[in-house]
Amino acid sequence: MNTPSFERPLMADCVPDLVATARGDLPATLVIRGGTLVNVISGEILPGMSVAVQGSRIAYVGKDVSHTIGEHTRIIEAEGKYIAPGLLDGHCHIESTQMKVTEFARAVLPSGTTGGFFDPHEISNVLGLKGLRLMLDEARTTPMAAYMQVASCVPSTHPGLETTGAYIGPEEVAEALSWGPDMIGLGEVMNFPGVVYGDETMIGEIQATLRAGKVADGHFTWAADDWRLPAYAASGVTGDHECVTKEDVVERLRLGMYAKMRQGSAWHDVAETIKACTELGLDTRRMMLVTDDRSSESLLKEGHMDFVVRLAISQGVKPVTAFQMATINTAERFGVARDIGAVIPGNIADIILLDGRLADVRVGMTIAAGHIVAENGKMTAVWDSFTYPEEALNTVKLEANIQPKDMELSAPITEGTIGAKVIHVTENHVDTKEKHVNVTVEHGNVVVSTSGEICKIAVLERHKQTGNRAVALVGGIGFTGPAAIAMTVAHDSHNLLMIGNDDALMAEAGNRVIGMQGGVAVVTASGVTEFPLRIAGLMSTESFEVVAAQSAAVSEALQSAGCTLNNAFMTLSLLALVVIPELRLSDKGLVRISAEGIELVSLFDEMVENTPAAPAGN
């Protein structure tokens, strides 16, 4: 079967045919007739409008396009429907859906997402530029306008705090940005202390990006009124998704940055951040709606960017304004508004038709690069499959011989109680809290109860066979009986992460994940639930539907064990991310993130901390 080409040619190459179609000398390939246009440029809702498409691009927009219709022109009658630009996700990590790019496209195109700006720093931390190139090549086979960013933080801070499978610096950034116009910029610069205090690598990566004429995305988690935010902005970072309050949005906008308001599966920030629009009345042209990220379960049950736009509207945002935040604002932020983000002559024909009220964002048809790719919630387009090489499928460099004793947590006393730091999970938020509790010590090891509040958390390095292993304590998980979960999805270094209240079950879960060459395993007294993620230990080789079912099975197993956190798996996968406050665990040990910087700290209160704060990320 011949599959269509979803080519997105340069505007300059299309000018002769577009103009010929617009004046009626060359028949349009596709016409959408008689709908109500959502004009995100003017902010108007215009009835009785039609659109003529020539190949991949829009040739004409107006009340009457009859002069563009030929014998072979495909006509879509849009009376009673809204015509809107395809939705864009301004910050997303495809790997966090556990799907490869092809399946992600199949998941989001029916709900109206026709493009996005993707930061593949998950696979980059495992495979480096090879992993990034694989995802770029796969993305190019899909109908999506898939723009890739170069991972800025591999590792997220520096090798003294964590071990990754690769390294990316200024030279690698420059190389990747030369791969084509769909390499759009530098991914979120998470080592914000390094930027502020002049770390050579971080500054060099930003310089390489700016010299290539690209944009740099940010990740700043110090307070909105921190004096260092302007210093961060001075580096050339012009967009940031770490906004959790309306004040965060305000301060970024005032500095000329784009403020990204996110609604992921496990972190819900739109309701608060959107108040910068609904309560404070700030200009919305640099406000963007993003996901960062939505699980396969959420995509199946709720949708993607359509869900986020609906939510913004429900919070009091005018529908056309909400659409702007998910289309033209995003395209302008990345400098591609001449190609995507609006239904205007010359732009790529990424268009959605909406049924019912505009505020309902009910997508009935998706057109991508001039092709009808989805109707009534189902994909209609097909394209060739993409195969990952063996080196991307065998990335867990560990033997499946973890023993229960490897999960033991040695204390500086033999018997009694001792004060210890605990990583406390915050539901629906990316941050954790540092709590201090007294824990029981027996025979020199910390003891946790299978029915208690505290669990153990362990990270084993899985890339370079260093043998690094760290064990600490975590609260807020909710297990009510013996249970454990292990996963190689452990942002951002993606080492082997285990959480549980039973050493034997933790070891078994870890061994099962190693045996799968990556994935997730939940082990309880009632059984085992597995979710294989063979590609870099992050993504499944299976279809969207299978991934969603396996992800749901993990959620159900966790809930049955007492972990009722919303999107628990996604929340738990962040517990090794050493750039988000307040406490995390890496393969090097317990890490504190504060206004003073990022530092390794001791688990026990009585012990002297291991290293001084390292604000420069050195």
Automatic annotation (TrEMBL):
EC number(s) recorded for this UniProt protein: 3.5.4.2
GO function terms (MF aspect): adenine deaminase activity
Species, as recorded: Paenibacillus pabuli
SUPFAM superfamilies cross-referenced by the UniProt entry: Composite domain of metallo-dependent hydrolases, Metallo-dependent hydrolases
InterPro entries, per the entry: Adenine_deam (IPR006679), Adenine_deam_C (IPR026912), Amidohydro-rel (IPR006680), Metal-dep_hydrolase_composite (IPR011059), Metal_Hydrolase (IPR032466)
Catalysed reaction equations from the record: adenine + H2O + H(+) = hypoxanthine + NH4(+)
UniProt keyword list: Hydrolase, Manganese
Domain of life: Bacteria
Record family assignment: Belongs to the metallo-dependent hydrolases superfamily. Adenine deaminase family.
Listed name of the protein: Adenine deaminase
Domain Amidohydrolase-related intervals: 82-370
Matches recorded under PANTHER family: ADENINE DEAMINASE, N-ACETYLGLUCOSAMINE-6-PHOSPHATE DEACETYLASE
Adenine deaminase C-terminal domain span: 432-594
Swiss-Prot/TrEMBL GO biological process terms: adenine catabolic process
Cofactor section: Mn(2+)
Annotated signal peptide: none
